[in-house]
Design brief:
The structure holds two protein chains of two kinds.
Chain A: H1 11-34, H2 45-49, E1 50-53, E2 58-61, H3 63-93, H4 98-112, H5 116-135, H6 140-143, H7 146-156, H8 162-189, H9 193-201, H10 206-236, H11 248-259, H12 262-295
Antiparallel strand pairs in A: 1-2
Helix pairs in contact in A: 3-4, 3-8, 3-11, 4-8, 5-8, 8-10, 9-10, 10-12, 11-12
Chain B: E1 10-21, E2 24-35, E3 39-43, H1 50-57, E4 65-70, E5 73-74, H2 79-88, E6 89-92, H3 104-114, H4 120-133, H5 149-161, E7 167-171, H6 179-194, E8 198-202, H7 206-212, E9 215-220, E10 223-228, H8 230-235, H9 240-250
Parallel strand pairs in B: 3-8, 3-9, 6-7, 7-8
Antiparallel strand pairs in B: 1-2, 1-4, 4-5, 9-10
Helix pairs in contact in B: 3-4, 3-5, 4-5, 5-6
The chains are: A mainly alpha, B alpha/beta.
């Protein structure tokens, strides 16, 4: 019977760790309840999610929901931009020519070696204040037809905050694009040299090699790390609150100040972030499984 | 094998070619002439530069001095020349180098469609023709990873042939194969030889060499030390190193 014994028999360690963790949680909850003497009150939260609009005679999203929508818009647009930027820069990074390689290297190193918060301030004061007037976003609401405004409202949020949101998107995209660049570079460089030689031997040009041989294989390889980078981006989007982009974290700070219910609101918002990040992770893992199936 | 017509027309001219990897000279003053329809087998110990030599012929490696002229195109820094040479020279690699994300058929149609400008339909029917010639038309819709090594190498041969090259280069095509698969690949290569294709093979398969070669080339330390017809090469090699090599390789 000895042979049938499971090779791993240290279950008592697992049990010990579990007991320790449960004890710790119980202790923290106990501390919060007795030492802090805090009266939990969650009742204000629904009111900050939706409010009754007297004019429209219906419910309209209030600060927290507005913030959530802005965060989602920020995330989606900056993911798209970061992906485009990252793929271009990633390909330049593996170019045979020195100039594109240097340009892309400069971009990646600049961004990776500056703390995100500092980057955001630098970006805000020196770059975004130049870009948004250039795009003419400030007077867009006066010049455009109601239809365009509606579309814009759906895609990018309320027109009065357009330049604000666009600044946030560009900032996040620039920032995350550097990480996407590195992922794409690693993906391209993971394709064996023999693939390129095989392609060259049948007369494919450099561009054709990239398009038909290297990139299709590289893309398959970069999907998992890219997915986790995009989830990081969703969470990182909260730092643009520092330059008053009116997304979830920024608006939560407002709610926290006006209600003084700091504990409840931050716990609640943590849960909101968790739900969207986890949903994305779940979606990506499904996508990965499907791609794996497709390949076989 | 019947000595089917070798023309007098030179198709590959290699003159005093040298190449260095850093300080190490892999090729030293190589001279070699290959005529149209001729089959050359290159052998020699590992590290003797034989792979490097044939990789120079389609510019997968760059030679640093000397001249290589393939079918009237000199290999220099003109990318047009390089492209023209690559379109006329097919290559089969030791590691097959098939494209794993494409099916067998797509592997064979990629070049003809993108480089030769064939329509999908033309490329497909042509690819099926060559897949039949290498005796695996039934695998056309599988991915390379589903095939055995021998089958993959035959697909690689078909992929090269689909470009309708005038010259085929083989870089140790059977070295990565299990013994029982070597024959199926060699058989396909012998078939190909019978069509009169100009071929340069780097291989240790001396039986194959004896059957198909017109010209045997033995390389050692980056030099061609012996260049002879197969009868003379096998029965009466001139060079001591050739003798040693042959005795080692033929004894088992």
């Amino acid at each position: 019977m000895i042979r049938n014994k499971a090779p791993y028999d240290s279950y008592w360690i697992d049990a010990l760790v579990l007991i320790a963790v449960v004890f710790l949680i119980v202790y923290v909850v106990y501390r919060v309840n007795t030492v802090l003497v805090y009266n939990w009150d969650w009742s204000f939260i629904p009111g900050y999610l939706f409010r009754w609009d007297e004019e429209l005679q219906s419910y309209a999203p209030n600060l927290l929901m507005k913030g959530l929508f802005t965060t989602i818009r920020l995330a989606i647009w900056s993911i798209i931009l970061a992906a485009i930027l990252g793929f271009i820069m990633g390909m330049m990074r593996t170019s045979r020519r020195l100039f594109p390689r240097m340009l892309s290297r400069l971009y990646v190193e600049l961004i990776r070696n500056i703390p995100p918060v500092v980057f955001i301030f630098v970006f805000y004061f020196f770059i975004s204040s130049q870009i948004t007037p250039l795009l003419g976003l400030d007077n867009i609401s006066e010049d455009s037809s109601p239809m365009t405004l509606k579309v814009l409202d759906f895609l990018l949020g309320p027109p009065e905050l357009l330049s604000n949101v666009v600044a946030g998107i560009i900032c996040l995209a620039l920032f995350e694009g550097a990480y996407v660049t590195e992922i794409v570079r690693a993906g391209i460089q993971s394709i064996p040299k023999g693939q390129v030689e095989g392609g060259m031997s049948i007369g494919l040009s450099r561009i054709q090699l990239m398009r038909y041989v290297v990139m299709p294989q590289a893309v398959q390889k970069v999907v998992p790390p890219l997915a986790s980078q995009f989830i990081i981006l969703i969470k990182d989007s909260s730092i643009v609150s520092l330059i008053s982009i009116q997304e979830l974290t920024f608006l939560t700070m407002e709610v926290a100040t006006s209600t003084q219910r700091v504990f409840e609101i931050w716990l609640f918002v943590a849960a909101m972030y968790f739900v969207i990040s986890y949903a994305c992770a779940f979606g990506f893992s499904r996508l990965e499984k499907r791609m794996a199936l497709h390949k076989a | 094998m019947p000595d089917n017509a070798i023309s007098t027309e030179t198709i590959i001219q290699i003159e005093r070619v040298s190449k260095w990897f850093g300080d190490f000279q892999v090729l030293q003053d190589i001279d070699l002439t290959v005529r149209h329809g001729e089959r050359v087998v290159v052998c020699g110990p590992s590290g003797s530069g034989k792979s490097t030599l044939i990789r120079c012929i389609n510019r997968l490696e760059e030679h640093q001095s000397g001249r290589i002229v393939v079918d009237g195109n000199e290999l220099d820094y003109n990318t047009k020349h390089i492209h023209m040479v690559r379109c006329e020279v097919g290559m089969v690699f030791q590691q097959f180098n098939l494209f794993p994300h494409l099916t067998v058929l797509e592997n064979c149609t990629l070049g003809p469609m993108r480089v030769r400008g064939l329509t999908k339909k033309e490329a497909k029917s042509q690819a099926m023709e060559y897949l039949e010639r290498v005796r695996i038309p039934e695998q056309a819709h599988k991915h390379p990873s589903a095939l055995s090594g021998g089958q993959q190498q035959r697909v690689a041969i078909a992929r090269s042939l689909c470009m309708e090259p005038r010259i085929m280069l083989f870089d140790e095509p059977t070295s990565a194969l299990d013994p029982e698969m070597i024959k199926e690949v060699l058989d396909v290569m012998i078939d190909l030889a019978e069509t009169g294709m100009t071929m340069i093979c780097v291989t240790h398969e001396m039986g194959f060499a004896r059957t198909v070669a017109h010209q045997m080339v033995f390389m050692d330390e980056g030099r061609i030390v012996e260049n002879a017809a197969p009868e003379q090469f096998f029965s009466n090699p001139k060079n001591e190193r050739t003798k040693l090599f042959l005795s080692q390789i033929l004894s088992h």
